[in-house]
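Re-run with default settings, no changes from the original entry. Doing this only to confirm the output is reproducible before filing.
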Amino acid sequence: MFLEILKAILMGIVEGITEWLPISSTGHMILVEQVVKFNASEEFMSMFRVVIQLGAILAVVVLFWNKLWPFGLRHGRVCSKPAVWQLWFKVVAATIGAHHQPLDDWFEARFYNYITVAAMLILYGVLFILVENRRTAPHVTRLEQITYREAFIVGVWQMLAIIPGTSRSGATIVGGLLLGLSRACVAEFTFFLAIRLWLVRPCSRWSSSSSPALR
């Protein structure tokens, strides 16, 4: 039991370091699992890979609470923050294309292996180098400047994360940079997308016992 706890701690460290970097946290956990073998069922590991992200998500919620909570106090009275509501509406627009559970399961069943993960990590590393070497100045530098169209397109980019080893944040950041969003702006928007997607993903993962990941 003690050894299993140490393995879980190691996985937590890997998840905590990689979750908010534009590299695949799940992909790195797959690579770690090739060396650190858990004495647990695949059903448990599928749940563990989702739940382990909770700590990283809560860290962002705490850090950006003032930007996330759509209510505030003014003259001792509760008031609404229109800018925050608009941000959340854009986040919802960006996650419209994120509900692709059957396709996600199909890719996971066939490509959930360290070879695919390694190939995608290399591919996105090269892609980031190419995007960063562009000389185009961003035209969107603040969250409130993001349009619904740009939010939706960023959301389409995150669909690439159905391929194991593809970072969801990495895909959205690349898409945002190509759209003309600044690094800081698209990174922050990606953080908010992750919160919304984490709330959706566990429900879709655990609602169907027929999912290949749970068999």
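The beta strands are 71-74, 77-80. DSSP finds eleven helices and two strands in the chain.
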